[in-house]
Amino acid sequence: MDKNANERQSDGVEFCIIPEFHNNKIYFYCSEYALFWNSIETVGDFNKTLDIILKERIIPATLDEIADNDLIHYIDTVKEYDTDTKK
Fold this sequence. Notes:
This protein is α+β, with helices and mostly antiparallel strands. It has one domain (5-73). 11% of the residues lie in helices and 16% in strands. The protein has two helices and four strands. It has helices spanning 5-8, 63-68; strands at residues 14-17, 26-30, 35-37, 59-60. A four-stranded antiparallel β-sheet has the order 3-2-1-4, with no helix packed on it. β2 and β3 form a beta hairpin. The longest helix has 6 residues, at 63-68. The termini are far apart.
């Protein structure tokens, strides 16, 4: 738990899919530090971040995808994205 997150106005991590990996796995992205993790258990551990350089955009995981991966109970805040405009 990050006790200083509110002071930094951190959104925590976002549940996302990385299309160029072609695996439909949910990854966890922290926009504040521009870091990725591959499991919820390692989120926040800077020694376990993924060393990747993306060529394509990430896309947000849907609530269905999050629920299918048994991660729904980790959701604290929901953001709405317009997938047509990528915003």
